[in-house]
């Protein structure tokens, strides 16, 4: 039976399973991602309106004599421009909300395995937390020292303190003191990179987590293509 689905109770009544904190966090993140997708589709439609008139956000709508241009629908263009500005601001807010929602998912305790008789269903504090195994492929080589709001790094879900295990094709064996990182980022502008992280515990009761994110380097309102500060990590 799926979580959240009603099931029969006594005397013909129905009951609804309460979602776990992790399920609620995942549902919140998924809803925000759907909202982001809707906004991006709307922005594309609005930009298509401008393109159909052969103008962009900054092209003039008056002729050389200072009169409104007769070859375009000025009302439609002005309306589309105003909506684009508003939707872009909404999209920035959604990106920040998604980053916070994904962080909440990573911090939420794992749901107990219903097939594991040793799992406790009454209290998450009694669950066993195991340390991340020290495997060669999990050796971090860099640390995220800062993340700028509304940046590509923030959109991807990076947070300060993340330990980078893999950044695209780079790992602890081939990053050359992080010298290989800038050219890799530059060569992947507007192309997705897979990043694998070790996320340190954020609370006394949480455990270190292995996180895989997708980061797309791109131009934004700040400096660089990532919007985060990455420094070497030493054990």
From TrEMBL:
Pfam families: Nas2_N (PF18265), PDZ_6 (PF17820). Residues 30-107 form the Nas2 N-terminal domain. Residues 1-21, 109-134 are annotated as: Disordered. Residues 22-49 form a coiled coil. Keywords: Chaperone, Coiled coil. One of its GO terms (biological process) is proteasome regulatory particle assembly. Residues 144-199 form the PDZ domain. Belongs to the proteasome subunit p27 family. PANTHER family: 26S PROTEASOME NON-ATPASE REGULATORY SUBUNIT 9. This is Probable 26S proteasome regulatory subunit p27. It comes from Catenaria anguillulae PL171. The lineage of its organism: Eukaryota, Fungi, Fungi incertae sedis, Blastocladiomycota, Blastocladiomycetes.
